[in-house]
Amino acid sequence: MDAEVAEQLRDLITRLQTDEDIPSAMNQLKTLLVSAPTEISETILEVGLSKILQCFNIFDRHLVDLICEVLTLCFEKFSPGEVIKSFTGNFMYLLRHENAHVRRLAVDEIAKAVISSSNALPIPQYIDVYVAVGQLVGDNDIGVANKAILITSNLPEEAYTKVLEEMKILLQYSSSSKCNVFEVIINISIKSYDLFKICLELGYIDIMVQEIQSLDVLYQLNILELMSTLAIKPYGINYLLNSGAMDKLVTVVIDLKTSPVGGILIPGYMKLFGCIAHYFPKEIIEKYPTLLNCLFGLFESEKQAVLPVALDTFGFVGSTTEGKLSLVASGGKFTETMMKVNLLIKNSSSDIKIRALNCLTNLISIEKDTNTANSKPVDHRVTLMTREWFRGLSEQPSSMDLLFDICKNPFPDIRLAAFGLLDAVSQHQWGHELIARTAGFIEYLLDRSVDFTKECKEAKYDIIKRLSNSEVFDSNITSRLQAYVEEGPFYCNRMLEVAMEDAD
After folding, report:
1. Sign of dihedral through CA atoms 110, 115, 119, 122?
2. Whole-prediction pTM
3. Residue 199's pLDDT is what?
4. Closest among 405, 313, 413, 411 to 363, alpha carbons compared
5. What is the spatial distance between Cα 154 and Cα 163, in angstroms, rounded to a whole number?
6. Does pLDDT of 499 surpass 50?
7. Has residue 437 got a pLDDT over 70?
8. Which of 67, 74, 57 lies closest to 23, judged by CA?
9. Cα separation of 71 and 88, whole Å?
């Protein structure tokens, strides 16, 4: 490193001790650091940061922004975590500074260290830094809070007992602060059962369940969203079922039927119900019929806003073999709901049409259930049910003719959803037979000149790959299907056409 650059840095930092020189010296520091080599870090270590930090005592917003720029340039000369190790005390000061810009500066640098390596700031030497960041999870500044959430959700495992214990103080503050804390708790809990146990033993999970009964509607919705994330883990589901939390949730849902805010909150409860019922459909549907009836009730609501959640939940619960059988066992309400799904596919806005197509796809598919996807043969009850469900889509035109029309829809997102349903249908022998009897459908699928997006080409290829192994088509069609598979989803015959034109 040029000795002159190092000397300039020392001189400028010395000038910061004179108040009237601070603005000029700070601007010159900024200019110097922009072009200074990384070796300047040696001089920064030598002279320290204290003289720069002292300038924060001058209450000038523009100067604070300039100081932060200078500090950022200083930090950039160090590898992730190195500057924090060298100036730990200074970082503790920055993390607790009253100015949000200064706190953001500090958490941004700590985030770089934590994300780059879980050992960048090892325990226990830097546990105080982690505790200080954890307490910023409830910061009033959204930028600071979000970065603190990111950091605290990705700490070394051995840091959590101390950090989470100290974070409890945030539960005394606003609902926004508590939501941020719970977000960290869920982010941690879904990583492993051991981390979930730490959160459980510290009381956080139980507190979340209690807070669901808050009068703050938005707060309730946020907690339900977080609990839905936890419910995808087996130990999360087991906690909800065995701790009595599920019984409390059902009680709340019953009360919501007559509540003025029920229309807002019930979709959130249904999403949570769907996550749990997906994994334990028979147990949940039999033990908590109120929840299933509530789901069916959403399809009867005049509020269009609840339909997306209703469709997603209905399809998610019915995506497994056990889910399909459990839903059918509910009787007439299920049949009525299937009719409503079919009507939504035929007559609704684009967004609802896509959700309804995806819902029916989940109900008809036999490959979305990881427990039975590779089992042979398929449960004959599922074969019979799915065939009837698809036939119920339309009488005139037939269900396959209607699906053919939707596959030709000019909007790519609707077309892709239709291909998803066609793929589910083609997982069944009865589906192959219906496709074979639908005039022009195979020719349409094999026609590469039809304009498709990348996603649609891939979806169409998967369907053709299934059909190429079918025995319902004549040898000519089978050969064409197999040739298509060999050529791949993105084959283009333009090169051959150009070559023939050149030869002419």
Report:
1. positive
2. 0.82
3. 96
4. 313
5. 12
6. no
7. yes
8. 67
9. 14
Burial of 343 (0-12, 13-18, 19+ CB in 10 A): middle
Domains of the chain: 257-393 (1.25.10), 411-504 (no CATH)
Distance CA 429, CA 213 (A): 49
Residue with token string 């192959």? 432
Specify the pLDDT at position 381.
92
Q: What is the DSSP letter of 136?
A: G
More confident residue, 165 or 501: 165
157 within 8 A of 195, measured Cβ to Cβ: yes
Please give the torsion angle defined by the CA atoms of residues 448, 451, 457 and 461, in that order, rounded to the nearest 10 degrees.
-30
* Integer Cα distance of 118 and 80 in angstroms: 11
Burial 185-215 (b: 16+ CB within 10 A, else e): bbbbbbeeeebbebbbebebbebbbebbeee
SS3 129: helix
Which amino acid appears at position 450 of this protein?
V
Q: Are 150 and 157 in contact (CB under 8 A)?
A: no
Q: What pLDDT was estimated at residue 331?
A: 86
- Whose structure tokens read 């809070």? 145
Tell me the average pLDDT across 440-467. Answer: 90
Residue partners of 330: CB distance under 8 A and separation at least 6: 285, 289, 292, 296
> Quick one: tokens of 19?
């108040």
Encode pLDDT of 382-428 as tens digits. Answer: 999 999 999 999 988 899 999 999 999 999 999 999 999 999 999 99
* Angstrom distance (rounded) from CA 183 to CA 188: 9
CA distances from 102 to 63, 71, 75, 96, 176 (A): 12, 10, 13, 9, 22
